[in-house]
Amino acid sequence: MSAEWQPVRQSRTHELVLERIEERVLAGELKAGDRLPPERELAPVLGVSRSALREALRVLETIGVLVSQPGRGPDAGARVVRNPDDALGRLLRLHFALGSYSLGDVLEARVVLERSSFATAAAHASAEDLDEAEALLVRMQEPDVGVTDFNDLDTRFHVAMARGSGNQLTSTLTSAVRESVRPLILQALEAAEDWPATTAALNKEHTELLRLVRAGKGAEAADLVEKHIRGFHGTLVDENAPDDRSEDADR
Amino acid sequence: MSAEWQPVRQSRTHELVLERIEERVLAGELKAGDRLPPERELAPVLGVSRSALREALRVLETIGVLVSQPGRGPDAGARVVRNPDDALGRLLRLHFALGSYSLGDVLEARVVLERSSFATAAAHASAEDLDEAEALLVRMQEPDVGVTDFNDLDTRFHVAMARGSGNQLTSTLTSAVRESVRPLILQALEAAEDWPATTAALNKEHTELLRLVRAGKGAEAADLVEKHIRGFHGTLVDENAPDDRSEDADR
Predict the structure, then answer these.
(1) A43-46: long-range contacts, CB 8 A cutoff, minimum separation 24
(2) Is B84 exposed, middle or buried (CB count within 10 Å of its CB: 0-12, 13-18, 19+)?
(3) Given an 8 Å threshold on Cβ–Cβ distance, is B172 in contact with A87?
(4) Number of Cβ within a 10 Å radius of residue B81
């Protein structure tokens, strides 16, 4: 009788549904492109209410594993996809705002991921990836480019190079980690005293980065992208940084 | 009249609720530890049905931003937390199963993240982090440790070193990236012909890794952890790898 009492785990219906669908994905029985049965058919098969089923489907939509079928009514059946980028971006953005990580943590993670991306891209990037990066660079150099457009193109340039490394996971993480501090980056760009000079300086580095990658100079590209990230990222300020960061608010 | 028609974006109610709550988090108005009003109060304030509100709350629970209050009835109001690790692990696990990334992508991402963690931990780890890693190592060396326990302790050892680097984001990513291939790691451990020899070899490397970190030898620790990861991870096989990986099933 000395064994401790364990609390009963209160699984809620939508979690059980979520687990059931996840098991099928993990077993390879549900693949990208497959369609789930319509809600009105699936709910009775699983023995759950349609609202519990819908809660589970919403979660899977939000993490980029399902899309519902717009325009075909609520009973068309969701489709399995693999679209992790937005989901991961949202997750890291919210957790950054809540203080799960600091601005310094984000900076160092970017440096680590992008050093690797640029070094590998220099060895492996396809002509298509490099041409895409070049086209983005041309648009970033247009004289009337605004802050939001510049930032979007800038992000896409870095993500294109990560994709050029051939690593989809690193590319997804690069995009999401950058997305997590997007509001701060926009703030810093908007606060730039001399916008044309700021973009000119950033684009000079982008141009040199692309040249190094095209020339296969991975080590030099890695060093320059670290300098590039630290240079700009170092000017960011997190005014909303929670002051209770060290407290344990997780449980 | 040459402008192209753009499709109308069909925002669904739960997405609007999600955005409303996210805005508050991003603006710093909702912080970790804060409590949302009970569903029956919040739904009419937002002008939405309780089921739409609940769908949004489920999503936020799943990405580790909210916990509901078990044992206090459905009207107690969820609490804001920061618990990204499980959410990120689930997300990467599902997307790995769907073929969003390959086993090779996961291997290279682990090498990049953990080289950085070990190098930084050698300079910054607290005595507490190192003692935790040591205690995990002692448990991994117990003669009757089973496959699942060994793998859990092994993961916790690597995550403890990532936390020792002081970077919460890298630590979260290390944990999630490893979690994404957990079934394959378990399979490989179960298939080990000589279990005591396998654990002895892994633990010899763990012991040496900890020694290097304690001695402040970051560069050597980084090289050894790369060898350690490539050595074991290189034996993993993804039998369920989708053969349509190159197709675009995302849209």
Answers:
(1) A46/A17, A46/A20
(2) buried
(3) no
(4) 21
Token pair recorded at residue B23: 């805005």
CB A24 within 8 A of CB A30: yes
pTM, full prediction: 0.84
Sign of CA dihedral A8, A21, B64, B124: positive
B48, B98, B171, B186: which to substitute to probe chain A, counting the most A Cβ within 10 Å?
B98
Q: Which two tokens stand for residue B4?
A: 């192209």
Query: Hey, what long-range contacts does B201-204 have (CB within 8 A, 24 or more apart)?
Result: B202/B140, B202/B154, B202/B228, B202/B232, B203/B137, B203/B140, B203/B141
**Which pLDDT tens digit goes with each residue over A4-63?**
665 555 568 888 999 999 999 988 899 999 999 988 899 999 999 999 999 999 999 988
Q: Which helix (H) or strand (E) holds A79?
A: strand A79-80
Minimal Cα–Cα distance from B127 to chain A, Å? Answer: 17
- Tell me which of 2.40.50.140, 1.10.10.10, 3.60.10.10, 1.20.1510.10 is the CATH number of domain B13-80: 1.10.10.10
ipTM for the complex shown = 0.83
Domain locations in chain A as residue ranges: 13-80, 85-250
Nearest to B181 by CA among B103, B66, B71: B103
Give the number of A-B residue pairs with CB atoms closer than 8 Å. Answer: 191
User: Around Cβ B223, how many Cβ atoms within 10 Å?
Assistant: 15
